[in-house]
Every structure is written in structure tokens, then in C-alpha cells.
Specification:
- The chain is of the alpha/beta class and about 250 residues long.
- The protein contains 5 helices and 5 strands; from the N terminus they run ααββαβαβαβ.
- Strands 2-1-3-4-5 form a 5-stranded mixed beta sheet.
- Strand 3, helix 4 and strand 4 form a beta-alpha-beta unit.
- The longest helix has about 90 residues.
- Bound molecules: 2'-deoxy-5-(hydroxymethyl)cytidine 5'-(dihydrogen phosphate) (5HC).
């Protein structure tokens, strides 16, 4: 009997001990769950903070961009107002028209000439209104002017400028900035000579606009170049400027 009682007591102790262990394990599990929950809360809270910061940054970026747009828009408005204030409108009404511009470029090029008597300039324009060649009467490139005559009369033709000088038309054609001149117009300050007319025809230039026709009455000048250009069906018109005088002031005030 005593032995059974002892066994029973021992079993009860074991059962109690197991119950304690189970309770203890339950407590541990509970504690872990609580820790995990707590961590999850912290992570969620951090994510929320990060999200909130990102939103703030995005808001700031948006505000900065919006300010930049406003500043740019104000600058545009100011520039426009200034233009309107200066010109009374959005653009200048007295701008140089294309034809005046091209003939002025030819006339300006003529000022480069060293010919003491007659300075000629030429300006070639393509069908897109782009200048593609400029020239003035001069001695061939690289030939020293000191070794060549600029006089009109001499012992023979070889002793005059006519034997050596390149016409403005010839120089403009040689200086062209594209492969061919088909359909182009040439603005020239003096009606072309016969040699220039031949080059104009050969180059495929379709129109000649000239300023002066001062040699019209000279037999050779009157006949051959005009005849050649007419045969080649090249339109020749005398220039009538919109602005007879165009001045350029190169003074700088600063
Ligand atoms: N269409 C022309 N383009 C020219 O570049 N010239 C040049 C050649 C001479 O240098 C100069 C005429 O000299 P004079 O004969 O007026 O002193 O002008 C001349 C003509 C008309 O003959």
C-alpha cells in the first residue's frame, strides 16, 4: 500500500511538473508573439514615417518645380512686355527685307575690292533664301597685288588689270558653299560682263538682279552678255531698293 501511495504521489508530482513546464512554454510563446507583434508595430510605424517623409519630399519637389515654372513664366512675360514696350508691338516693322539685305551684302563685299576705279560685289542666294556665295573683283587668290597692274590702259592688254582681275561673279561662284547653284539668284552691283555671263549660265543660276548698268552704252557690254543671258533664258532685272541708304553703326557703348 505504502509503495502504491508513493508511486501515485510520484506520478502526481510528474504531472504537476509537466503542467508547470507547459505553462512555462505557453508563457514563452505568448511572450514571443508579443515581441513579434511589437516589432511588426515598430516596422509599420517606421514604414509610415518613411512614407510620410517621402510624401513631404515629393511635395517639396513639386513646390520647387511649380516655383521654377512660375519664375520662367514671369521671365517670358517680362521679355515680351519689354519687346512690346521697345517696339510697340511684338516685332520690328522696319526690318531689312530680303532683297535689300542681299544687295547690301553684295555692296558691302564690293568694299573689299582694291580696284581703284570700280568696285563690284556679288551675292548668290539659293531657293531657300540662304546666301551661298559672296565675291568682289580682285586679283586671283594668292597673287600679290603689288606684282599686278590695276590700271585700265597700258602698252597692251597684258599691261592692264583686265588681263588678270577676277570678276565679282567669278569669285562668288568659286566661293560657293554647296555643290551646285541650280535655280539660284545672283545679286550683283554691276551688270555682268561677258565672261561673268558665261559663268552664270554654266553654273545653272536662273536669275540676275543687278544694281548699276553703267556700261550699258558700251558696245561690247551692251550686246554680248545681254544676248547670251537672254538665249539661256536667264531673267535679268534691275534692282529697285526699298531703302536707298542702309547704314551700319559699329560703335559700341560699353
Ligand atoms: N560685271 C563686272 N564685274 C566685275 O567684277 N568687274 C570688275 C572688273 C574690273 O576690276 C572692274 C571694272 O573696271 P573699270 O573698267 O570700270 O575700270 O570691275 C566688271 C564688271 C563689268 O564689266
Amino acid at each position: 500500500m505504502a509503495s502504491r501511495a508513493t508511486t501515485t504521489a510520484s506520478r502526481a508530482t510528474t504531472t504537476a511538473s509537466r503542467a508547470t513546464t507547459t505553462a512555462s512554454q505557453a508563457t514563452t510563446t505568448e511572450s514571443r508573439a508579443s515581441t513579434t507583434a511589437s516589432r511588426a508595430t515598430t516596422t509599420a510605424s517606421r514604414a509610415s514615417t518613411t512614407g510620410s517623409r517621402a510624401t513631404t519630399m515629393a511635395n517639396r519637389t513639386s513646390t520647387t518645380a511649380s516655383r521654377a515654372t512660375t519664375t520662367a513664366s514671369r521671365a517670358t512675360t517680362t521679355a515680351k512686355e519689354e519687346t512690346q514696350h521697345l517696339c510697340g508691338d511684338t516685332w520690328r516693322a522696319d526690318f531689312l527685307v530680303h532683297e535689300d539685305y542681299w544687295m547690301t551684302v553684295a555692296a558691302l563685299a564690293a568694299k573689299r575690292s582694291k580696284d581703284p576705279r570700280t568696285q563690284v560685289g556679288a551675292c548668290i542666294v539659293n531657293q531657300e533664301n540662304v546666301i551661298i556665295g559672296i565675291g568682289y573683283n580682285r586679283m586671283p587668290k594668292g597673287c600679290d597685288d603689288d606684282h599686278l597692274p590695276w590700271n585700265r590702259h597700258g602698252e597692251g592688254r597684258w599691261d592692264t588689270k583686265y588681263a588678270y582681275v577676277c570678276s565679282a561673279v567669278a569669285v562668288a561662284i568659286m566661293n560657293k558653299k554647296c555643290s551646285d547653284l541650280k535655280g539660284c539668284t545672283i545679286y550683283v552691283t554691276l551688270f555682268p560682263c561677258t565672261e561673268s555671263a558665261k559663268l552664270i549660265i554654266e553654273a545653272g543660276i536662273k536669275k540676275v538682279v543687278y544694281l548699276s548698268d553703267q556700261y550699258h552704252d558700251m558696245e561690247m557690254m551692251a550686246a554680248s552678255p545681254r544676248f547670251l543671258l537672254a538665249v539661256a533664258e536667264i531673267e535679268c532685272i534691275q534692282f529697285k531698293p526699298t531703302e536707298p541708304t542702309i547704314t551700319t553703326d559699329l560703335t559700341v557703348n560699353n
